[in-house]
Specification:
Spore Coat Polysaccharide Biosynthesis Protein SpsA, Chain A, ten-stranded mixed β-sheet, alpha/beta
Length: about 325
């Protein structure tokens, strides 16, 4: 029987021909070599599939799988089913990693049984210029429900799947997978991971570079983003109720709603051009009880200061839009 690799790196691929090779080369150049790479072509219509095929033919332990297009969540779940590694790492195909990521992660995990670890990252432009960094963590370890408490308000445990490495057995035990939605699926996954994790570790330093590009899904803003985010909250709430979310965390869940919706409203102030569509985004948030939760000081106080300010500004849509228009003149935008 062939010994399974220590890591399985899962890379969903969809129409990223301009960025894919850089991503794959960053993985193949890892100083730690006990890993496999599962490439999942999610129905690409450009040259991505050919690039992935050629790379897998010349690099051992890179395996290309193909499927009909179903979205990022579907591709990740498909790759997970094929993974043999003890630990799972997700990388988006337009991003890239430092060559010591798996080496440093292995150094931590080889003698410890953390359910998952977190590592630092940054957002970079196409010229590799960083625009925002998340480099260091206040904590070295966290245990129990403190993990979930942090994750609900994105305090050190961020709502992205790609700055973490997970125990495969842990994910299987708790049936954790990505939900059948196409926006904010990472948030749901991260909340579930944090809800059930008994221990986590924080690895300081920038190990992952997330590309900011105008054509990516994460840069688009429309009412569909709000519809899907509200659908996400329904998924989360139903799951947490089914699995007996402790009552003391209900307010944190509402704070999570405030934080995410206020950020989306900020994004819409920059990116939604039609004023009527912009106003409708606020009406959708109102139906999702955004302003109701914002009226409770005990919920708002759970947020960081900058998030409290943003929630306040969301009560004044035209002011928020005016601020966005003014700061755009100086090329200041939220990432």
């Amino acid at each position: 029987m062939i010994k399974p690799p220590f890591f399985s790196v899962i890379i969903p691929i969809y129409n990223v021909q301009a960025y894919l090779l850089k991503c794959l080369e960053s993985v193949s150049s890892q100083s730690f070599k006990d890993f496999e790479v599962i490439l999942v072509d999610d129905g690409s219509s450009d040259k991505s599939s050919r690039i992935a095929y050629n790379f897998s033919k010349t690099h051992p332990f890179f395996y290309l799988l193909k499927k009909r297009n179903g979205g990022l969540a579907s591709a990740r779940n498909f790759g997970f089913l094929k993974a043999r590694g003890r630990y799972i790492c997700y990388i988006d195909s337009d991003d890239y990693i430092e060559n010591n990521l798996l080496y440093d992660a292995h150094h931590i995990l080889k003698n410890n049984s953390y359910d998952f670890i977190n590592f630092g990252f940054d957002f970079v432009l196409e010229d590799e210029k960083p625009v925002r960094k998340f480099v260091s963590f206040k904590n070295k370890y966290l245990k129990g429900l403190n993990i979930f408490k942090k994750a609900l308000v994105d305090d050190e445990i961020y709502s992205v799947a790609w700055n973490k490495i997970y125990s495969k057995n842990f994910l299987i035990k708790h049936c954790i997978k990505f939900p059948p939605i196409r926006i904010n699926e990472d948030s749901y996954h991260s909340k579930l991971v944090s809800r059930f994790a008994k221990s986590t570790y924080f690895l300081n330093g920038v190990y992952y570079h997330a590309l900011v590009r105008n054509s990516s899904l994460s840069r688009k803003m429309s009412l569909d983003v709000f519809y899907n985010t509200i659908r996400l909250f329904q998924y989360e709430f139903e799951y947490f109720q089914l699995n007996k979310l402790p009552p003391i965390y209900t307010q944190l869940f509402y704070a999570h709603i405030l934080k995410l919706l206020s950020y989306l409203l900020l994004q819409s102030a920059f990116r939604i051009k039609d004023i009527e569509e912009y106003k409708k985004a606020f009406r959708l948030c109102n139906k999702a009880n955004f302003f109701q939760y914002a009226a409770y000081p005990e919920i708002v106080k759970l947020l960081k200061f900058k998030n409290k300010v943003l929630v306040f500004l969301c009560h004044y849509p035209l002011l928020l839009r005016g601020i966005a228009r003014f700061t755009s003149l100086f090329n200041v935008r939220p990432y």
